[in-house]
Design a protein that fits this description.
The protein is α/β, with parallel strands linked by helices and 358 residues long. It is built from 15 helices and four strands. The chain has helices spanning 2-16, 18-41, 58-65, 81-89, 114-132, 137-146, 167-194, 197-203, 208-236, 246-269, 273-293, 299-302, 306-318, 325-348, 351-354, and strands at residues 44-52, 71-77, 95-99, 105-108. It has a four-stranded mixed β-sheet, sandwiched between helices. The relative contact order is 0.11.
C-alpha cells in the first residue's frame, strides 16, 4: 500500500506540469523537423567567373542549369585574369575559366574548397556531354572497342537502413534517453528537498526501496510517452524503419533506469542548481557532439563511461542487435552503486540538513 501511495504521489507531481511533458515530447521532434526542412530547402549557390576573347557557349549555361535542383550555377564575366583572381579572393566566385579560343578552356579551381570542386566537376561533366554530342556512331563504336575496361553504373544498390540510420534520430535519442531522464530524476530529488517532503518521509520511516521505485516508475512512464511519440513521428517521416522485437523493451528500460539512478544520485548529493545544470551539459553535449561528427575516435576513451554504455545499449536495441555483455553489466552495476550510495547517504545524513532548513 505504501508503494502504491507513493507512486500516486509521483504521478500527480508528474502530471501537474503538463506543459513540461509537452515540451519534452515536442523538442526532439521539432529539432528533426527543422533540420529536415532546412536540408530539403537548402540550395547551394555557386558562381563561376570567366574571361577571354571568345563568348561563353550558351550550351554550357543551358546544360548546367538542368543538372541539379539543389545546386544553382551562375556565370559572371570579367575583363581579364587579374579581375577574375581578385573576385575569387573576395569570395565572389568559386572558380573561373579562361576561354582561350573556341575549343580550349582553362579552368582554375581550388581542390580543397567544396564549392570550387563542385563547380569544376559540373563544368567537366557539361563539357564532356557537349563533346559527346559531336561523336558519330562509328566514332563511339571505335572508342568503346578501344576501351580496356568497360564500366557500367548500377543504380539498384542500397544500404541497409538498420545499419545506417539518420543522425538526426540519434540526436533525438540522446535527448530522450539522457537529458530528459537525467533532468527529471534530478528534479524529483530537488522537489523532495525543496518542499521538505523528504523530512516527513524520513520521520515516518518510508522504505527507501519504495521511494526510488516509485520515482523510477514515474520516470519510465514519461520516457515511454516521449519515446512512443518520437518513434511514431520518425516512422511517419520515413526516417526510421522500426521493427519491434522482444528484448528491445528490456534493454531500453535498463538504459533508462541507469540514467535515472545517476540523476537521483546527483540530485541527492548536489544542492547547487547551477552545478547540476553544468554537470548535465557536460554529460549531454559531448555525446551530441560525437554524434554530429559521426566519429568513433572517442569510443576507446568513453566505452567504459556509464552514460556512454547506456547509449550503446539503447542504440543496439534500436538496430535489433544484442549489446555487449560488458555494456549491460556496467549499466546494472551503475544502478546498484548509485542507489547504494544514495541510501547510505540518506541513512547517515540528518533529514533536517537534507531540506536545508534554517
Amino acid at each position: 500500500m505504501q508503494l502504491i501511495a507513493m507512486f500516486r504521489k509521483e504521478i500527480q507531481i508528474l502530471l501537474s506540469n503538463r506543459l513540461l511533458i509537452f515540451a519534452n515530447v515536442l523538442i526532439p521532434i521539432l529539432v528533426i523537423c527543422v533540420n529536415l526542412i532546412y536540408t530539403e530547402s537548402a540550395i547551394i549557390d555557386i558562381k563561376v567567373g570567366y574571361y577571354g576573347e571568345q563568348p561563353l557557349d550558351t550550351r554550357i549555361k543551358i546544360k548546367i542549369s538542368h543538372y541539379s535542383d539543389e545546386i544553382v550555377v551562375d556565370f559572371l564575366q570579367y575583363e581579364n585574369e587579374k579581375e577574375a583572381k581578385e573576385a575569387y579572393n573576395r569570395k565572389e566566385i568559386s572558380c573561373f575559366m579562361h576561354l582561350v579560343d573556341l575549343s580550349n578552356i582553362d579552368i582554375y579551381y581550388d581542390c580543397e574548397n567544396q564549392k570550387s570542386t563542385i563547380a569544376y566537376q559540373y563544368l567537366i561533366a557539361v563539357l564532356r556531354d557537349i563533346n559527346a554530342e559531336q561523336y558519330t556512331k562509328e566514332l563511339i563504336q571505335e572508342i568503346m572497342e578501344a576501351q580496356t575496361f568497360v564500366v557500367r553504373e548500377i543504380f539498384y544498390l542500397t544500404q541497409d537502413k538498420s545499419e545506417d540510420l539518420n543522425p538526426y534520430i540519434w540526436t533525438g535519442f540522446i535527448w530522450i534517453f539522457v537529458y530528459n531522464n537525467l533532468s527529471l530524476a534530478i528534479a524529483q530529488m530537488q522537489q523532495e528537498k525543496n518542499t521538505k517532503t523528504i523530512l516527513y518521509l524520513c520521520k515516518i520511516g518510508v522504505s527507501k526501496c519504495n521511494l526510488f521505485v516509485s520515482k523510477a516508475v514515474a520516470g519510465l512512464l514519461q520516457f515511454i510517452l516521449i519515446l512512443a511519440a518520437f518513434i511514431v513521428v520518425t516512422v511517419d517521416l520515413g526516417l526510421l524503419d522500426f521493427h519491434f522485437w522482444g528484448p528491445q523493451i528490456f534493454l531500453w528500460l535498463l538504459a533508462c533506469v541507469c540514467i535515472i539512478s545517476i540523476g537521483h544520485l546527483l540530485g541527492t548529493l548536489i544542492n547547487n542548481t547551477s552545478i547540476q545544470v553544468i554537470i548535465q551539459m557536460l554529460i549531454v553535449l559531448p555525446l551530441m557532439l560525437i554524434n554530429a561528427l559521426q566519429t568513433s575516435v572517442f569510443d576507446t576513451i568513453l566505452k567504459r563511461n556509464p552514460i556512454y554504455c547506456c547509449i550503446s545499449v539503447a542504440r543496439s536495441a534500436m538496430l535489433g542487435q544484442i549489446p555487449s555483455n560488458i555494456d549491460i553489466g556496467i549499466c546494472i552495476c551503475t544502478i546498484t552503486i548509485c542507489y547504494t550510495i544514495v541510501c547510505l547517504y540518506l541513512d547517515k545524513q540528518e533529514p533536517i540538513k537534507l531540506c536545508r532548513l534554517r
